[in-house]
Give the backbone structure.
Amino acid sequence: MALQRSLACLVPLGRCTEAVGIGGAAIAAAVDVGDRAGEAAACGDMARALSASNEEPNLREALALLERATAIHEEHGNALDQSRMIRERASLQERRFLIADTPDSALLDEADRLIQVAQEKLHSARMAAAGESALLEEAKLEAALARLRYHQGRWEAAATRFERANSMAEHAHFALPTDLALWGHALFHLASAAGDYSPGQRLRQLNAALEKLDLAVKDSERLGDFDELVQIHVTRGDILWNLHEHAELWDLPADGRRCLETRADAARDYEIGIQLIERRSFLLSRPGDRITAMRGYHRLYGRVVEAHLKMALDRGPAGTAFLERAFHYSERAKAASLSELLTISIDLLAKLPKEIRVEVEAAEKVQREAYLFSESLSSLELSDGERANLRERTWVAEQRLHAAQAKAFQAVPSLAGLLSSRHPSLAEVAAALPEDGRTGVLQLSWTESSLCAFLIARQVSFACIPLTAFRERGIEGILDNLLDAHGDFADGLVNRSATITWRRSEHLWRRTIAEIPARMKQILECESPEKKSLLQMIEEAGVNNLTIIPDGRLCGIPLHAGIGDSICVTYAPSCSILLRSARNQMVVPRSALVVDNPDGTLPGASIEGMLVESKLRAAGLATVRLSGTLATQESILREMSRSECLHYTGHAISQSVSPWKSSLELCWVERVKTRLTAADILIRGQAPPGAVAVVNGCTTAQSGGQGVGEFVGLPAAFLAAGYSLVVSNLYETLDSSSPIVMDRFYDFLASHAHPARALHTAISSVREMSGEHAESGGSGHRRMPMSHPTHWLPYVIWGAGWILDSNAARRDPAPVRFEVPLPSIAAAFPELLDQFRLAEERFRARDYAGQLRILEDVLRRWGGSFFVHSALAGAWMALKQPGNAHRHEIEALRRDPNSAIQHFNLGRVCLDLLRLAEARDSFTEALRLNPGYAKAWLHLGPILFT
């Protein structure tokens, strides 16, 4: 029963991964004791936990569990519960229809059939015993049918059924907020549909739709259902957005159009949704759940950016505040991407001193519990004093975490740069630029319907280019062809066994890359409704140094190829990291590290390494060269901290799914290929202030994915480790031309040119070389002149492109404070998380001894933590050895004495050991820390009674 209560509590909180593990245990426990009713309830709860992920395999497993629960209820003749389980199966089929890339109407047909079966079961239940439960179930079934009609686009039938369902729910004293929102949406579609409506009739229908949405928001806030509240705000935002975008189709009277107001209302709903998601995501202890929560609503950031930018355009000079807010959310979306995909997905704190790690972990736990306590009491009527105490508790928890973070930031400085909770304003970015007015920053945000651009130079200019302008020129097809051609070419490089296929993919890629400059210019020439393109904005600003901050699908796309040769282009992941790079003012290097051809498979890399070493030594730099087997992870990290210039040439791998695993290939050690990953650089790498890195490896500048806002990859890791500038490659480079590009680059760098300008000048000189240059790899390759983009286009530079010349007038940007909650150590390390997954699998298989072996191996390899000792205690309890479990519960509490959950767990162990006084004290302490802890009250009651 306790497991089922835990499961029922975790699912509404969004902690679905934990709920699935507990669900398996609850089902197994019910089967062991022959509790069929408990087994059915646990199957239903576990199905809800699985379905929360919206992943097809989990949805299929959830359907199987619901079928199992339905069969159990049928055995007991419980028709009402059968109806509920069948209705939930229909809802899962509806969910599968909504998340499918290609929606299958057969899923809706199956859901319709299931609803009819459920109605038949309910009818027999109501014949036996009518009541509010049956009436509520009837309302939910009617609402389910209404949703199916809604998805089928049958708006009138949907509105009729929603009205009937809402009437039934009111009789049962229950609210259906989500269905109210969809009812409003259906009415909106009816109002906007073509028909013989007078303006007054159309306006009345529209007002009825908006009224339903307002009621839905109030009901969801009253019920405190997070998922419904977010979904309703998003739905209302979508309706208001569409109302504004297509206002000219409504034929409404002038006083009923509210054009600007509807756009502002839509933006407000989206902002509320973002705030709810960001706050809620912190309550999720598992990194996978956090990433799912953020990614699932990433489009809201783009909608808010576009809404505020269009409001700024509508208001002209009076729209400054809207412009600033649009930029804020653009930057916020990029920072959210980086923190979720990098800092939460890997354990940046793993290498911290143990005492700091434990302190941060405990502080984060206290804050999470304070937030949970606040969330649980938010729907209750509290006195002013009680609310003040609640705010005080939350404030104390936040201050404790900030103090622990300060120590962590001192030990791992890259944490501060990556985890900034404060985003720079337009004025702060402008203040960081040189005063000569020749430098600009172009930040891009790719939304569902527009490309939003901010050009920050002497003055801030902005544009909102609709995607229709891109579609007219076939830009989306250009991007798809570019990505597909490069993907085929990269696959061919890995496996050349099929020679004909490899030749075809190579030929297609060479032809595609030759067209890139013209294609990129087409992208930059697309115009906004104000007849302003990105190229026009850049030309009007008169800049000759431009930093581009790409977004979404534009990450990893060589936009610089479409900009005139007179402009020096650099890239940056976000303005936050750009300003951090600018603060690391570049110095004229005195020491250097050269790493070349670590695995011995690239002779051209060895030539380049020798060339660069000679150039650096000739310039008077103390140079260390690590070639072949000398290039180990430890030796590189050690020399990185001493060298103000790093040059790497060799193989590199960019991981799109797991960007923190993107790596530089190193030497072989005992027949195992070693690597220096982005995670290693973030955790252990530390460069001297102002250092420069040249990472000349294939695809080191590729993005971590096309569905996120910010670039996530190796350059971001190097910038976070303290480098001010990073030279890297978008695509594969050639052994034959790479040494030539690097030779020119270091020649210009030796003359004290800024690295960005040195790279730009080197590429320009290579493009002007006469004659032809043979590609390495054999005589079968086509000979291409050096002007061909294959030789020069892949090279890009990341960081602030204006920081070197001490004579140039510049102003320092305002200092940025870093105050954010750090991710949970125990749950964030990928390899550690894999071990816990294996342990959970052993638990579900009832192999408790195997589970214990895995957990003890974790303890031996990574040391103890709150989470490890807590899991070990659970394993010993499963083996019915409470004595050993007690030892680990005590150790877990020593690491986090303020955990109400852990005090409760200790109390359960003491009950098994018949230590009633200790159990009473543990449950009492859990209730002192969390007065609303229902399970603790449940276990304390019998002890007090005895």
The mean pLDDT is 75. The CA atoms of residues 557 and 730 lie 8 Å apart.
